[in-house]
Design goal:
This protein is mainly α and 136 residues long. The chain has two domains: 47 residues; 67 residues, no CATH class. The chain is built from eight helices and no strands.
């Protein structure tokens, strides 16, 4: 049986499956498993929810982006000015370093970028610097 045919069959049985009682669901599931040769648990998922959505969902999954390119760029400038010291040593002096770089004209930061840069912890600085160093 072709994949499209199996999905069509699941679509046909889905409405009946969702309305059926426990015994009726069992018999519909048995019929679907015999016809499609699916594993019983996978067949239950197909009848309950339908096929998994692939691609086209747009956007990326996971956590939202907290430190965008502007923050990473500023971090790279600060780290370079600080001699590429580790995040544990850079973190306590980041506010002073950013102030000094702004006074010298090496950095011009918007308020939200500045806040994000100063809120960054030592471990995050190390992780983000790894990507910044790889680009240089």
């Amino acid at each position: 049986m072709r994949r499209a045919s199996e999905q069509d069959l699941a679509e046909e049985l889905r409405a009946r499956y969702l309305k059926a009682n426990r015994k009726g669901k069992g018999s519909l599931l048995d019929e679907f498993v015999r016809t499609t040769d699916y594993h019983r648990k996978y067949a239950m998922v197909q009848l309950r929810h339908g096929p998994a959505k692939r691609g086209g969902g747009g956007g990326r999954g996971g956590h939202p982006v907290v430190y965008g390119p502007a923050v990473l760029s500023a971090l790279g400038i600060a780290a370079k000015a600080g001699g590429w010291i580790c995040g544990k040593r850079l973190d306590p002096f980041m506010a002073e370093l950013v102030d000094a770089l702004e006074r010298e004209g090496a950095l011009e930061l918007r308020q939200e970028v500045r806040e994000a840069l100063l809120a960054m912890g030592a471990a995050t600085i190390d992780r983000r610097l790894a990507t910044v160093k790889a680009r240089e």
